[in-house]
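quick one, 278 residues, struct below
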Amino acid sequence: MLNLLVPTEPHEVMPSVLETALMIQRRFDSYMESFALRPAVPDYVPIDMVSGLAWQVDERADEEARRESHAIFTRFVEAHGLTPTAPGTVGSGYGWHPKAPAGDAFLASHGRLFDLIVLGRPISGKAVPSMATLEAVLFESGRPLLIAPPEPPQRLGDTVVIAWNGSTETARTVAFAGPFLRGAKRIIVLSVEGWSVPGPSAEQLALSLRRNDIAAEAVHAKLGKRSNGEAILAETRALGGDLLVKGAYTQSRLRQMIFGGATAHVLAAATMPVLMAN
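---
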């Protein structure tokens, strides 16, 4: 069983997030919990000193967002026949956290109780899904993040591609990916020419996995005129990968924001689910 945290908020990638989480829930007979993910109420809100109107509007908007998110999640689990899990009990099914506070800080903190957190991939020009939310999970939860693509996947975890560059971040992500690796039909350890840090090779990782009874093969790709991120996604698609396992931010996050990097490109353009950790 994998305990899943699937925050809900109204945006166009949410159907894919829920469908992706459902595929995982069914594969691992999981408990799936959700709550209304919404922006934190600002510490300072300009208020009309006579009417208090700004504060009332802010509270009303927060409550409406919470209700809408709850309705989205409830319709989904009921449509797919999931059963609620009684609070405080153990078992598969789903639960709703009705008193979750707004803001990414709660998500990162509460997420430490779960085996996997599922969020949607940010889309250029859209405020949500938010990159800040993904980074809060990556840097503050200590747990792996499963990023759902904009369109619901047809398969998940049959062919797993590990984007290997020898880094500690990727090694940690591979460890988190254990349940998916043990259930996969094919596992490819992908290395890309010139994209690595000092560390074990793809062949060494594949051998290590085989020693743990996880069949894996190593594949090396030429970079050509592509960026590292472009090469990773293109090779994953060519290999038929339906789950990409990748460490986050081997370079500093600031450097990636300024100069670009493999993580930044994957977060912007992946069309398959991505399992990521830092």
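Residues 3-147 form a domain with the Rossmann fold fold (CATH 3.40.50.620).
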